[in-house]
Amino acid sequence: ALQRDRYLMGKELALFEQEFSRWQDVEHTIGVANGTDAILLALQALDVTRNNFVVTPSLTAVATVNAIARSGAIPLFVDVDPDTGTLCPDSLERALEKGALSRNVQIAAIVVVHLYGFPADMTRITAIAEEYDIPIVEDVAQAHGARWQGTRVGTFGSLAAFSFYPTKNLAALGDAGAVTTDQLDVAERIRALRQYGWNEDRIAQEIGLNSRLDELQAAILRIRLRHLDQETRRRRQIADDYFAALETTSLSTIRAFPHADPVFHQFIVRTAKREQFRQFLLERKIQTAIHYERGVHQHPAYWRFYEMAKSLDVDVPLTHTEQLVEEVVSLPMYPQLSDGEVERVCQACLQWSQEQKRGRHD
Predict the structure, then answer these.
(1) For the CA atoms of the chain, what is the radius of gyration?
(2) How many CA atoms lie within 13 A of 300 on its CB side?
(3) What is the crossing angle of helices 89-101 and 122-132, to 10°?
(4) For residue 12, what are the CA distances in angstroms to 124, 197, 202, 204, 215?
(5) Do 118 and 143 meet the contact criterion of CB atoms below 8 Å apart?
(6) Are residues 169 and 242 in the same domain?
(7) Does any domain span residue 303?
(8) Whether residues 218 and 327 fall in one domain
(9) Main-chain dihedrals φ then ψ at residue 359, nearest 5 degrees
(10) Integer Cα distance of 76 and 65 in angstroms
């Protein structure tokens, strides 16, 4: 890639787009600068405009909601399923019911997040979306290769947005992202929008972005894509070991639906004693993280959108979101973990649970 004289919009990008399309089983992949831009461009391709509402879960990375707000739309937050952490179909249905009854609310899209690498319930979600005739954008930033009832996530909606940030399952060595779709006209529009809205003559037909996936990152992603399925198998093996070890502990886990094949971007446990648990593991040289400490509706920058929904009577309870953000902990999860390191994590969790039981009886 470096030896060629073209560092943007060249051969490596074209080859990555072709190879990722084959792997993802879609017709078109459009490489863009990052996953946030991917969501923004997907919404723009759906003609989401200022003051439209876009439904999305509050339990997600801020980037999801940032893209909605940057489009000019208003995020309408819904709750998650407490067992999987993914968008709750009942909460979605309630929000759409309330929106349909309001003269002041036009819901233009649903952004479904496959959080932690766990597929959302796409059977129910797509049925609800079809009933209300609202398009779906899938946020697949954390779920490369996950499947719902045997079908890859990212193929159920009108479009899907991917991130290849360095911590993702398919990772570049910098920012990178992509939009996928089976619709040729939509793909052509996004190809224009990612580069100022230019046509082939470099005439801007509409206002776009400067959001290009560069040649170096595309070349890196091509190589890493060849190893992704193997790395996913390793993630699942680690998850199996964690599940087996945690079965008899006081720690509960976020799990996938029975019909889902997750890819374990994160492995999440829940405990009401989160900081004590994290400190216990840190003393044993095991690092943890929190995904996420707040629902997006609890961030100062986005609270006003939740208040706006309340004032229009289209808000829904976010009970599970607000409980999960107080309890979730991410255990180490990456394919390079050795069996010995996985065993150390398992033993530390078992020891924590045993000490908690002893403490209750002292």
Answers:
(1) 21
(2) 0
(3) 10
(4) 38, 22, 22, 25, 5
(5) yes
(6) no
(7) no
(8) no
(9) -65, -35
(10) 9
Q: Give the C-alpha separation, 262 to 235, whole Å.
A: 10
Q: What are phi and psi of 355, to 5 degrees?
A: -70, -35
Residue 28 lies in a domain: yes
Q: Which of 126, 161, 174 is nearest to 40 (CA)?
A: 161
User: What are the tokens at 64?
Assistant: 């999801």
Q: Which of 152, 149, 118 is nearest to 259 (CA)?
A: 149
Is there a single domain that holds both residue 198 and residue 279? no
> Is 280 found in the same domain as 152?
no
Q: Give tens-digit pLDDT for 169-217.
A: 999 999 999 999 999 999 999 999 999 999 989 999 999 999 999 999 9
Bridge-based pairing of strands 159-163 and 177-181 is antiparallel
Q: Are strands 159-163 and 136-139 parallel, antiparallel or unpaired?
A: parallel
The residue range of the domain holding 256 is: 228-292+323-359
How many other CB atoms are there within 10 angstroms of residue 48's CB atom?
22
Number of domains in the chain: 2
Same domain, 55 and 198: yes
Q: CATH number for the domain including 344?
A: 3.90.1150.10
Task: Compute the distance between CA of residue 347 and CA of residue 244 in angstroms, rounded to an integer.
Answer: 11
Confidence (pLDDT) at 6: 82
Task: Answer yes or no: do 140 and 270 share one domain.
Answer: no
| 5 has a pLDDT exceeding 80 | no
Biggest CA pair distance of the chain: 78
- 190 and 278 together in one domain: no
Among 209, 224, 239, where does a domain finish?
A: 224
CA dist., res. 198 & res. 189, Å (int):
10
Q: In residues, how long is the chain?
A: 362
Percentage of the chain beyond pLDDT 70 is: 99
